[in-house]
Give the backbone structure.
Amino acid sequence: MEEHERAPELPAGRFVEVALKLPLKTTFTYRLPAALDARPGSRVRVPFRGKEMGGIVTALRDDCGAVPPAKVRGVTAVLDAEIALPDSLLQLAERMALDYGCSLGEALDAMLPAAAKQRGVRRLPHLELAIPPDDAVTLADELEEKSAGERARVLRAVLEWGGPMPTLQLQRDTGTSDSPWKTLVKHGALKRVLIAEESEPLEPDVREGAARHDLNEHQQAAVELVGQAVAERRHETFLLHGVTGSGKTEVYLRILELVRARDRAGIVLVPEISLTPQTVGRFASRFPDVAVLHSGLTQGERARQWQRLFRGEARVAIGARSALFAPLRDVGLIVIDEEHESSFKQDSTPRYHAREVAIARAELEHACVVLGSATPTLESYGRAKRGVYRLIELPERAGAGRQPKVIVEDLRKESREQTIEGVTISRTLQTLIHERLRARDQVILFLNRRGYSPVLVCPSCGSAVQCEHCEVSMTWHATRGRLVCHYCQNEKRRPEVCGHCEHPRMHELGAGTERVEVAVRRMFPDAIVARMDADTMRRRGAHERVLGAFRRRQIDVLIGTQMIAKGLDFPDVTLVGVISADTGLFVPDFRAAERTFQLLYQVAGRAGRGDKPGTVVIQTLAPENYAVRAAAAIDYHEFVRQELGFRRVTGYPPFSRLVRVLFEARREAEAKAAAVALRRELQGLADAESLGPAPAILARIKDRFRLHLLVKAFTPDAFGAVMERLRDVEDRSTHALRVTLDVDPLALM
Ligand code: ADP
Ligand code: ZN
């Protein structure tokens, strides 16, 4: 038997309040049978409207209030009575429900992993081919002819996987429900197999962190400032603005040492992308009691890590967004590294931002929050300027690294002969790549767009191949030989002739990473080239494999999307080429410039991190754009100065807080009517402004029309009043209409 903390004595009445994982803003009373043991924060199963439901106990009580006792139903099961959320997290959930307009049950569910307690090895459903691959290819084509597109897609995905494919991943990758694969199983094309879940924890690479640097004066000052607040058990939020390579990690480590010396716990959040053995290693080498939480873990491993934290065996949690809910007691420090990263915002209910929730948790625990970034969001920088956060600057690179030299290449001036395979690589960039390859240095080439080309267009009539379910063009993936919609995963064969004018050949317009890879292999046949994007990184462990090979210098040129733009520290990378700076610049979103600046600045920061100087080449059609110019000058303050000017005039964050309500329906009129009605109700709010309803940037996805309403609240009171009216707006969803509330939205797509 394992030893566990004892649950507190249960009151005689033995009733419990349970929050269900439903968008219902109330809790429900159940009777707790004598044989069961539960406490606030326990996960239970209860009967609800004729079904069994999961829920979390929010309180024990000895009566059942106004409900006649005979009518109160019993809890069916308590899942692991000894596992429960700590009080601080129960309180935090209430706060989240209020701030984001979700139910308490939804907030609590985000905190407690479904399998907090896991015994033995689980066997997971997979699907594999039950017919020879050649037959599967033929069948997939036939299915597509018969407009059974989803089944064709599923079959092809399993084919491409080349072995048993996890069923959940299959559904996610193909954007399908379980009905297509079930039909394929029924018809004998696929078969189901159960495969034991491999428990493959993220092994920290402890060699990484061995060096303990003497702090430079800026780092020293930062550690002292935060250290003082920690010593006083004072809640405060710091914005650590440090240029790339300024040694922010060393600062986090030193503060964490101070926190641990007082036996308080720490949480370190990093973006999923930079959650590499390298990052984990830096922390694990200094602290023996680190637990790692991230979405790549198997459920069993996740449960094990969660329990180590819950039992106090691990006192430092490092992980992606959800590690914020690590079941630690007496947290003294929460670090959010790369605070500008959009992955800190959850894009499903509850749509919380880790930064806001971290601050709320830290307030409850009298802890400090350190937000670190070389390119803080305008929201955070604005708050630091207003004194809501304390600003700490690390203006110089630590150690040997110097800022790279940046060259901006005006693509309008490049002659056509530099275009190979449809990819323009300027003379300068080509020469530099050659040089670096000769010197056996490493090169990173960045383009934030995957696939071969984003558009197939008819050179005669100019029409492009569009997804029939979405209002977007389909991306050509040459390796797979398919056109793919990046929004609904719908795919199809490349049309032989133009669908409009029957011109005999469609033309690939523009380039994605796949095309860059082809071009680079052609231009530099002796170089070892690897590509890192969502298409090549689907398998578990693929990240670690490629980055490991790159670190061991088994790769000369690494091509990738934003996945390679951030957080990576490779001393032998002396050249970074941005194939196009413009992929996100002209998106109709008020954050387009900010995102472009951040990406360019971050990707430039990958060059020259060792003792060798680095060079960055940025190719662009808009060299005069202020975001491009500020990134080329590696000048955050200059960018912020200009951008704040625009934001002030337009009243966007940080000069307001935004709330977005999205209406989606198959009939456009339906979405519109609901949006117009809400708009009318929002009239007359002081210090707030409603925009729309207007079509979302993606006006139709999966056959649903999408309209949104944006509300800007200019004062905290106005924000409160807006939320008062909007908190329950999702309850207007019907079978035909989906209403989504998003507080502080990042995506306006
Ligand atoms: P950032 O996260 O700010 O981009 P890192 O924490 O990755 O920067 O640090 C950049 C490099 O500088 C790392 O290789 C790190 O080991 C080194 N470094 C950090 N602090 C110092 C220091 N005080 N002296 C020398 N080197 C340092
Ligand atoms: Zn689509």
Observations:
- The chain has 20 helices and 32 strands.
- The chain has a mean pLDDT of 89.
